[in-house]
């Protein structure tokens, strides 16, 4: 059994908004059976550092997703097999290793998320790091998030301003199913066609 660390709002000082446990994601349906966030212990340590750095700027991390069971990665890929935004599950997503996190920044006092120019999972070039089609304020907010996360030990993915992962995850961590991780995130019988 894998030993992933559960990321809780109180334990880590973050806001959890696990989008794939709701219909408010690009598939239009809940992917997870319950809202939960887990990370590999290495990633959890980097997250704690990022939380501290953000707090010093009056900011709070607002988390959309962490560990994504391999079954869930198949659901996303089968819906939208676009490798610019969705990792081919045969290659292995860093999310399915507990080595990636999707998040944004919020004002620590009000809880209001900062303007990042697009929403989470906006699968268009406007979501690329360095996109100049968005407002200057949104570009600045993305750079603040990029600076906090990279200073805390995270790598970034150039096509998604919200996605951060540990360096070289495919060389270091295994892909985990819901059962192997022991997270109980997937609804019963959730093994879509093509899942190994």
UniProtKB/TrEMBL annotation:
Q: What class of enzyme is it?
A: hydrolase
Query: GO molecular function, one example?
Result: zinc ion binding
Q: What biological-process GO terms show up in the record?
A: cell wall organization; proteolysis
Cofactor(s) of this protein: Zn(2+)
Provide the cofactor note recorded for this chain's UniProt entry.
Binds 1 zinc ion per subunit.
InterPro entries according to UniProt: A_A_dipeptidase, Zn_M74/Hedgehog-like
Catalytic reactions on record: D-alanyl-D-alanine + H2O = 2 D-alanine
At which residues is there a site annotated Transition state stabilizer?
A: 68
Pfam families, A to Z:
Peptidase_M15
* EC number(s) from the headed UniProt entry: 3.4.13.22
UniProt keywords, alphabetically: Cell wall biogenesis/degradation, Dipeptidase, Hydrolase, Metal-binding, Metalloprotease, Protease, Zinc
> Where does the record place the catalytic residues?
160 (proton donor/acceptor)
The answer to whether UniProt assigns keyword Metal-binding to this entry is yes
Where does this protein hold Zn(2+)?
95, 102, 163
What domain of life does the native source organism fall in?
Bacteria
Instruction: Tell me, in a sentence or two, what this protein's role is.
Output: Catalyzes hydrolysis of the D-alanyl-D-alanine dipeptide.
Q: Which family does it belong to?
A: Belongs to the peptidase M15D family.
- HAMAP family xref list: A_A_dipeptidase
What name is this protein filed under?
D-alanyl-D-alanine dipeptidase
Encoding gene, per UniProt annotation: ddpX
